[in-house]
Design goal:
Layout: H1 2-29, E1 73-75, E2 86-88, E3 93-98, E4 102-115, E5 124-132, E6 138-148, E7 151-154, E8 158-162, E9 165-172, E10 175-182, E11 191-201, E12 209-222, H2 228-233
Antiparallel strand pairs: 1-2, 3-4, 4-5, 5-6, 6-7, 6-8, 9-10, 10-11, 11-12
């Protein structure tokens, strides 16, 4: 009989101890004190999308790369029947269709020049584009690209030759110098027989000025700028 009494006393004590632990745990979970942020469960919801930021503005002496020119909007007006408005390069190329089936193809070349074109102290650039038109023309264009308050803005394209070869483009003392292989007035378009040095002033975007500063005779050679199928038409 005494053993039964001892057992009856131990069971309530164990239950009381368990109840105390549960009560202590409940009071801790309801505490008003801030919890450790590292112990908080992390949200599994996806983060909101971040809006793309604008390109960093260019500094005065920042280099302008060919990649910076791949998506230029360029004003081109070199034929009477060309449609108005700028062409938009995409990855260095553009197509402009007009009339019934006329199509001009534009392609940015991997040559460019840098220097201050407008006298404001910033580093500007000159882009070189070849336009192959619906006719027989293959026009070589130079486009001034100005650093305006850290952003690149292109001026109107200037035609520097039809079915010629551009050897070199450079900027010196604010002027663009171009070495061009072309021909005398009495020579066929199929022929290259002289080298001309051009000087271009892009300081006034609306009124670029170009002049030939020297010419040098060359031994006549076939014009490499004319495709073979065009040679067959002559």
């Amino acid at each position: 009989m005494s053993e039964h009494k001892i057992l009856s006393l131990k069971i309530p004590a164990y239950i009381c101890l368990l109840a105390g632990v549960l009560l202590l745990s409940a009071s801790t979970g309801c505490s008003d004190e801030p919890s450790d942020p590292e112990s908080e469960p992390r949200s599994t919801e996806p983060a909101s999308a971040v809006e793309p930021s604008d390109p960093e503005p260019l500094e005065q002496d920042d280099e302008i790369t060919l990649d910076d020119l791949m998506d230029l909007a360029v004003i081109v007006e070199f034929t009477d029947d060309s449609p108005p408005g700028p062409i938009q390069l995409q990855n260095g190329k553009a197509t402009r269709t007009y009339g019934e089936a006329s199509q001009d193809l534009y392609e940015l070349q991997d040559r460019m020049a840098q220097g201050d074109l407008d006298g404001d102290g910033d580093n500007d650039a000159v882009a070189y584009i070849i336009a192959r038109t619906a006719g027989t023309g293959t026009f070589h264009l130079l486009v001034p690209v100005y650093n305006t308050n850290g952003k690149l803005e292109s001026g109107a394209a200037l035609v520097v030759g039809d079915r010629v070869v551009i050897e070199q483009i450079s900027v010196r003392d604010g002027l663009v110098e171009v070495s061009r292989l072309d021909r005398t007035e009495d020579a066929s378009m199929l022929t290259i027989n002289q080298r001309s040095i051009l000087e271009i002033d892009f300081s006034q975007p609306e009124q670029p000025k170009m002049r030939v500063i020297s010419t040098e005779p060359l031994d006549p050679t076939a014009n490499p700028d004319i495709p073979f199928d065009e040679l067959l038409k002559e």
